[in-house]
Design brief:
Layout (H helix, E strand, L loop, with lengths): L1 E4 L12 E3 L2 H8 L5 E3 L2 H33 L2 E6 L6 E6 L1 H10 L9 E2 L4 E3 L1 E10 L2 E11 L2
Parallel strand pairs: 4-9
Antiparallel strand pairs: 1-2, 1-3, 5-7, 6-8, 8-9
């Protein structure tokens, strides 16, 4: 099933591209979240007429994300977790904990934006990637310290 992407999607394509996806993915995920529209002649014409407005909104979102990324670059978060004597954590640091630590510093992000590829399972400093926008990625340093 062909759809027109209304937003950039990692691994699928860029805004305005016509891509082929499975019908269930389009019907159950893309359409309800307004990430894509069916690829019909009328929708293609509508998208082309709306492209300027969509591009303006996209630039505004990217600018706001870049400002947040600049704030986050200077931050160093501390998260206290229970750990063994060897420095291995009982459990791991979750994206929710990173989001809560960012919120305490005044930065609001969604937990799905936090990329903990592989997780944090040992004490020490770790660089955590936060995808603020499809074109803006911030990195924040998280120091995991033993709980006292």
């Amino acid at each position: 099933m062909e759809v027109i992407l209304l937003q950039d999607m990692r691994g699928l394509g860029g805004r305005g591209e016509v891509v082929d996806v499975k019908p269930g993915y389009a019907r159950n995920y893309l359409y309800p979240r307004e990430l894509a529209a069916p690829s019909t002649v009328a929708n293609r014409h509508w998208f082309e007429s709306q492209r300027a407005k969509i591009d303006t909104r996209h630039v505004a979102e990217r600018t706001a994300a870049a400002e947040i990324a600049a704030e986050m670059a200077a931050l160093k978060l501390k998260i206290a977790k229970r750990a063994s004597e060897t420095g291995t954590l009982y459990g791991s640091v979750t994206p929710t904990e990173v989001v809560e630590a960012l919120a305490s510093k005044g930065v609001q992000v969604h937990r799905r934006m936090v990329d903990l590829s592989g997780g944090i399972k040992v004490l020490g400093e770790h660089v955590v990637r936060v995808d603020l926008h499809t074109e803006v990625v911030a990195e924040v340093t998280v120091e995991v310290v033993p709980e006292t």
